[in-house]
Amino acid sequence: MNSELIPERPNQEGVERDDSPYVLESSLDSLTAALIADRQSQTGALLSKRIDRAGYVVPDLTGVGDESAKVQAAVDLAYAQGWPLVFPAGTYTMGEITIPGEVMRISGAGANWGGTILKPAPGAEFIIRTRTGAILRDLAFHLDGVETVAIDITNTSRALIDNIYIYGSSTRDSERAGVGIHLWGTSASNSAHANRIQNVMIVRCRRGIWGRSYCYDTEALNLWVALCSEQGIRLNDGGHMFTNIHVWECDSHGLYLIACGGSRFVNMYLEHNKGYGLFSGSYDVFGATFVGVRLWRNELGGARTQYGKRDRFIGCDIQENNGVGLNFYNHTDAIVQGCVFYDERPTKTQAYGIVSAGDSDRIIVMGCNAPDDHHVNFGIRLVGTSNQVLGNIT
């Protein structure tokens, strides 16, 4: 018997399965027919069909009208059988689709034109809400200027979001709306933690990724976020690990951190944002680490970190920002190592490479290149009496 034909979980209707393929298929077919008949009595339409090894396939609904009830019924049907749900190429209009339980995969025919496009139904607060262990893959979300959430990760852990394209609005000049991916826990015991987001592009939303309270230990890999009307990425709480991230031309900060202690940000490119490339503050941010981050031509400055401790900037390239490249305010015990600060244009705008102000102290700056003549004023200027400035080029 081919074990790949067996659902990952026992089906939830208590159907017994035999080891023979015939009995297994018969049991599945009988249960499928019963579930479809039950859903048909509620919706009046065929919802989905089962294809061996692929799971349940949602029919092409072509995006005409609100198909939320039919899609939700198809999700429930597939979940009851322990099979994934597959959307063929096409456009689907739906909202507030909720995965009913843990460990389910929903996928499409690709995240680009010609693939699977999901659009919000009128009045929907979100398009899809995940559950623990769920997988969303190969889907495009077009919000069409509607203030909604494409993917909602609330009170959920270990979800995987992979190969997703999210459009907030259709043109560069139209009003940007919606949130691409929303992570939120309602309490310490109902948190959004250990979720993984990878290979995702988010364009022209209000916020690209928004992690709120009780959201921690998020892993993100290969993200491109651009042209958001507020922050590109906004995160609360700590333990996040973000790698290979590009945030470009957002109307506020590229990366905004609130109480993100112990988080790691590696190989990030934060450029042309109208706020800071990186803003870390408002609440305590302790022990965040930034490695290989490029901050380029951000309008308020490269990075500002305030009211925190023990942040580390290692091997960063901080170039041609307005104001200050790296600005510490009421921040102590930071380390800046092996970073380069410069503005070589005839008309420079980066006034300082590194500045500390307020009650900042005990900042170590070592092995950095921050020449005075590459800045409007100076390369390094620190307040406090216990700083260590070692082996730098100024």
Structure notes:
With 394 residues, the protein is mainly β. It has two domains: 1-9 and 17-229, Pectate Lyase C-like; 232-394, Single-stranded right-handed beta-helix, Pectin lyase-like (Pectate Lyase C-like, 3 Solenoid), CATH 2.160.20. Helices cover 9% and strands 40% of the residues. It is built from two helices and 34 strands. It has helices at 21-43, 68-81; strands at 49-51, 55-57, 85-86, 90-94, 97-98, 105-107, 116-120, 126-129, 135-142, 149-154, 160-167, 179-184, 192-193, 196-203, 207-211, 215-216, 219-226, 233-236, 241-248, 255-258, 264-271, 276-280, 289-291, 294-296, 301-306, 312-314, 317-319, 323-329, 335-337, 340-342, 350-357, 364-366, 378-381, 388-390. The strands form three sheets. The chain has a 20-stranded mixed β-sheet that branches. A twelve-stranded parallel β-sheet has the order 5-8-10-12-15-18-20-22-25-28-31-33. The protein has a two-stranded parallel sheet with strand order 13-16. β1 and β2 form a beta hairpin. α1 (21-43) runs antiparallel to α2 (68-81). It is elongated and about 65 Å long. The model is unreliable at 1-32 and 39-46 (pLDDT under 50).
